[in-house]
Amino acid sequence: MTHDALHALSPLDGRYRETVAPLRAFLSEFALMRGRLYVEVAYFIALAAHPGITFLRALTPDEIARLRGLVEGFDDTAAARIKQIEAETRHDTKAVELVLRERVAGTSLEGLAAGFHFALTSEDVSNLAYALNIRDGMRAVLLPALDAVIDALREMANRYAALPMLARTHGQAASPTTLGKELAVFRARLAGQRESLAALVDGLPGKLNGATGNFNAHVAACPEVDWPAFSRDFVASLGLRPSLITTQVEPGDSLAALFDGLARANTILTDLCQDAWRYISDGIFVQQAVAGEVGSSTMPHKVNPIRFENAEGNLAVANALLGLLARRLPVSRLQRDLSNSTVIRNVGAALGHCLLAYQNVGAGLGRIAADEGHLRAELDANWAVITEAVQTILRREGRADAYERLKDFSRGAALKREDIAAFIDGLDVAETVKAELRALTPWGYTGLAETLARLDEAGG
């Protein structure tokens, strides 16, 4: 760990620096500067190519390549220069524009510099940069990390699809299921949220319409241009959904929906972490011991479920930040105030805690295995769970009092196999029905759990 990491205020830049490193390419200060530069360059190229923008000429291929090269070659030196200018101007977006002007000085583009940031407000640039960075960070890092968890659950659901286990409702023994089916429920829930998240990411909007959203400066300088059409085409060319009717700021409703969607996925993962923790505590899952790892500073035997605990904590922090972002970004005083731009800088932290959690959940799933003997013993100790099947079969046979009879016999009782057998022997039903009832076992009473656990594998 570096000196800087040891003294970092945030654990994302300290303890977990390497784990969340992939997100820095999209959601760091450096990435935001590069994103703003990308938007400025793309906008200038689009302006110069428009026949109605007569104060600019068409760019040569070399000039376009030079401009794009400024983005592709954006480095720490360029970022440091932006910060230097920002310290003087106290305006981060203006600093990007001024560095762009510096970088074309002495070239054929210098005479066209009036077209840089033409008629734009800083939010035209920033909202597009943020949308692009969040979109690309979700696609390249966060969704694949969530996919890895879904894939791990899918593999485990298939592996344990037929392994019977005692279910619990209200913490009490209930009709059996299979371990694979329980894991498949989490897989299905997460897969549904993942699909919704992908749609939200693909539909992120962007606005480019000036200081108060009316193209005032654009129309004043070049009234002959169809600026709404230009804006639609330009924003769409970035792969974003054009948002035309706004104030100075893009309202943030779509970002709020994305952050709420992430929070829902995180809530499902919190549920998974708590169940996995309980399964480990109850002996249903056994953890792999890692050489050199210590579970307790005083108790040598311990193998703690640290991956699930770490994930649960990071999910809580992530959801606190995501909730703040989702509630705060769509609210802006009149045309705008700077609180939004302050709050949105925490997107990287929110997604960083998500990434930490997803990786820990995946690692936790990778080091647990079912204790099949323990599962069988739990089922063998809870024969009362088949009374549901007994009373239902008796109902089929026309016994309207079946539930009451089974309740009087079983409620609160620690029944054994022989107790069930004696009850069946005393029933006034056909011998074929008694044989059907005698064939019931806790480990065989799992309904369609195995089929449901494999449903995703069959394309369901």
How would you sum up this structure, described in words?
With 460 residues, the chain is mostly helical. The chain has three domains: 3-118, Fumarase/aspartase (N-terminal domain) (Fumarase C, Chain B, domain 1); 123-209 and 241-371, Fumarase/aspartase (Central domain) (Fumarase C, Chain A, domain 2, Up-down Bundle), CATH 1.20.200; 383-441, Fumarase/aspartase (C-terminal domain) (Ribonucleotide Reductase Protein R1, domain 1, Orthogonal Bundle). Helix content is 61%, strand content 5%. The protein is built from 20 helices and six strands. The strands form three sheets. A two-stranded antiparallel ribbon has the order 1-2. Strands 3-4 form a two-stranded parallel sheet. It has a two-stranded antiparallel ribbon with strand order 5-6. The longest helix has 38 residues, at 122-159. It starts with a helix and ends in a 7-residue tail after the last helix.
